[in-house]
């Protein structure tokens, strides 16, 4: 964050947390204590009444406008900020913490007092691992390339083709099932592809620009995809029994899916799906409790995978 953003952040921290010293402020702002001392001097010079008494305090906060948020509205906003996957990206994490502090600093006094008494009856947490330093860097590079419409050169480890160099015109980033991806036009494949950030070995944003891909829309690109990868559109019909029927019956997986129970208690599931591999791997986890009625190519693919697994692991 720049100096102006940091000064506001310090001001918000002092207002919302009691008895913060220079070391604690330096840790929160990711700067040195010497920088904090200079910032406190700058705030005082701006006629902001800061004083020190077992920690930094504000003499008054009447100069700050109050947000008209109820307790529930604030807690909802705070939970959304703390639970977003952007917390995994270091640059966004700093921004989100600063944003949370700004919102809390502008709560009405009575709401701020109520916040102190609230427990953790509701808490959302991302259980998957945070993005590595390298992935955070890739995300920032890709985001910049998308905004500036610049070509990316990268070494990518594909499941299908292994490690090779690619040139890609990036279109947008996306977070799905605990992983960061970006979608772009691959100049090697001459087609749109989905790339997982953790599979990138190296990445450079080059000076070559490209025209905006107006035909691709993040809202529709993954329509009918089981997760993030597409393929030929297929009409799938499945029959679940036992525990699988109860599990699938209680969930929702695709827009436009149809579910019904037959006279024997089996769940009939129908949906339109793009590609077979992702849904095929999902079906393999149900074992004998799922029967693939259609299409035939999905049945043959899962059968081939099951036979291969059995052969590899047979004694």
Task: Describe what you observe in this structure.
The protein has 315 residues and is α+β, with helices and mostly antiparallel strands. The chain has helices at residues 3-16, 22-29, 33-45, 71-83, 90-105, 109-116, 133-148, 218-221, 242-249, 277-284, 296-313, and strands at residues 50-52, 56-58, 150-158, 162-176, 179-186, 191-196, 200-209, 233-240, 258-261, 267-274, 290-294. It has a five-stranded antiparallel beta sheet, covered by helices on one side. Strands 9-10-8-11 form a four-stranded antiparallel beta sheet. A hairpin with a 5-residue loop joins strand 9 (258-261) and strand 10 (267-274).
- Rg over CA atoms, rounded to whole Å, is 26 Å
Helix content: 40-55%
How many separate helices?
11
pLDDT below 50 for ≥5 consecutive residues: which ranges? none
Q: How many structural domains can be distinguished in the coordinates? A: 3
Largest sheet: 5 strands, antiparallel
Strand content: 25-35%
Total DSSP E strands: 11
Mean pLDDT: 85
> What's the helix-strand series?
HHHEEHHHHEEEEEHEHEEHEH
Strand adjacency order, main sheet = 6-5-4-3-7
Strand-pairing-aware structural class = alpha+beta
Distance between the termini: 59 Å
Q: Give the overall shape.
A: extended
